[in-house]
From TrEMBL:
Its cofactor is pyridoxal 5'-phosphate. GO terms for molecular function: kynurenine-oxoglutarate transaminase activity; pyridoxal phosphate binding. It comes from Luteimonas terrae. The keyword Thylakoid does not apply. InterPro entries: Aminotransferase_I/II_large, Kynurenine-oxoglutarate_AT, PyrdxlP-dep_Trfase, PyrdxlP-dep_Trfase_major, PyrdxlP-dep_Trfase_small. GO terms for cellular component: cytoplasm. Belongs to the class-I pyridoxal-phosphate-dependent aminotransferase family. This is Pyridoxal phosphate-dependent aminotransferase.
Length: 380
């Protein structure tokens, strides 16, 4: 067959999780928590199933959940999206990202992606027949160079994708970045896809600069979030997209014939959690900050050097004091020989910077898991 996605193989997350399982390694690779979801969420889910909420949900998501998302968004970002016209519940952020791209990007058009970038953007762009245009972030700070973004824009550009807090680096966009994006997109037909799945995992008193805070941005933005990240349930695959009515209408055309609707019982459960237990997302930053700090303090006893982590649940480490291997080879070696699985950064790039010696470790783990990993990393 003439494959439509010739460059796509198995994701690095699956590859490293399998390798970790094969070799009995502590898995700090693929990003998922190894601790339980909040008990109240499990109760709410089972209750929803027992109450009979087991058939198709409305295509856009159940009204109670869209209302709860609207209220939360107003509470956190000072802007209340219209629950009926602007919020669509999706099968994870992944489906939302796919829909947003397919809703507005035509064959032959260009989408600007900032590298390193999460892996699901590029295949969705290519399946749309469009062209990903890669602009590198700073190799040390992972900050965008907005002049380079400006230079990458052509009459064919239809979308810019940003991700804050950023996977894999944890870097966050600041208010100045949001202003720069507004300046670049003003008077163009370019849409913004803002991947904000780690919106509540921000540290040191920083403020998450959602595109929803900025009127000029939100009028052209698809803002994507994931309940998997916020409620420790990546396996439930539920998320949502907030976009203005005209964009949501196009988004929903794709959603309607992609999955039609998403897992109904969990929608009831998340509606309850957002409404009745806002402390969960309010305290998520502090919860993960304690993990980040404990993990970094322990990593200081190894030969790995920690990079700053402003947000998200990944710690980047520079391993150049340990090894000269390239990152893919190092992560395989670390998994097989040293018993700790990590994710190399090169798969997140169209063109990895040469000589970069960084690996990504997920700290969304129980203390015991992190301690077991540290004991092994101390032997490097
Ligand atoms: N975007 C980013 C930056 C992510 O890290 C992830 C999850 N790894 C996703 C999107 C996908 O989220 P979901 O599991 O809700 O589809
Ligand atoms: N988002 C997760 C990560 O970055 C992986 C999700 C997946 O396995 N596709 O590790």
């Amino acid at each position: 067959i003439r494959t439509k996605l010739p460059k796509v193989g198995t994701t690095i997350f699956t590859v490293m999780s399998q390798l970790a399982a094969e070799h009995g390694a502590v898995n700090l690779g693929q990003g998922f928590p190894d601790f339980d979801v909040p008990p109240r969420l499990v109760d709410a889910l089972t209750q929803a199933m027992r109450a009979g909420h087991n058939q198709y949900a409305p295509m856009t998501g159940i009204p109670a959940l869209r209302q709860a998302i609207a209220e939360k968004t107003e509470r956190v970002y000072g802007h209340r999206p219209d629950a009926d016209a602007e919020i669509t519940v999706t099968s994870g952020a992944t489906e939302a990202i796919f829909n947003a791209i397919h809703a507005v990007v035509r064959a032959g058009e260009e989408v600007v992606v900032l590298d390193p970038a999460y892996d699901c953007y590029e295949p969705a762009i290519e399946l749309a027949g469009a062209v990903p245009v890669h602009v590198p972030l700073d190799p040390v700070t992972f900050a965008p160079d907005w002049q380079r973004v400006r230079d990458a824009i052509t009459p064919q550009t239809r979308m810019l994708i940003v991700n804050s807090p950023h996977n894999p680096s944890g870097a966050m966009l600041g208010a100045g970045d949001m202003q720069a994006i507004a300046d670049i997109l003003r008077d163009t037909g370019i849409f913004l896809l803002s991947d904000e799945v780690y919106e509540h995992i921000v540290f040191d008193g920083a403020r998450h600069e959602s595109a929803l805070r900025y009127p000029e941005l939100r009028e052209r933005a698809f803002v994507v979030s994931s309940f998997g990240k916020t409620y420790h349930c990546t396996g439930w695959k539920l998320g949502y997209c907030i976009a203005p009515p005209a964009l949501s209408a196009e988004f929903r055309k794709v959603h309607q014939y992609n999955v039609f609707c998403t897992f109904a019982p969990a929608q009831h459960a998340f509606a309850e959690m957002l409404r009745e237990a806002p402390e969960h997302y309010e305290q998520l930053g502090a919860f993960y900050q304690a993990k980040r700090d404990a993990f970094a303090a322990q990593l200081a006893t190894t030969r790995l050097r920690c990079l700053p982590v402003p947000g998200g649940y990944f710690q980047l480490v520079d391993y150049s004091a340990v090894s000269d291997l390239d990152d893919a080879a190092f992560c395989r070696w670390l998994t097989i020989e040293k018993g700790v699985a990590a994710i190399p950064l090169s798969p997140f790039y169209a063109q990895p910077p040469s000589g970069q010696r960084l690996a990504r470790l997920c700290f969304a783990k129980n203390d015991a898991t992190l301690a077991a990993a540290i004991e092994r990393l101390q032997r490097l």
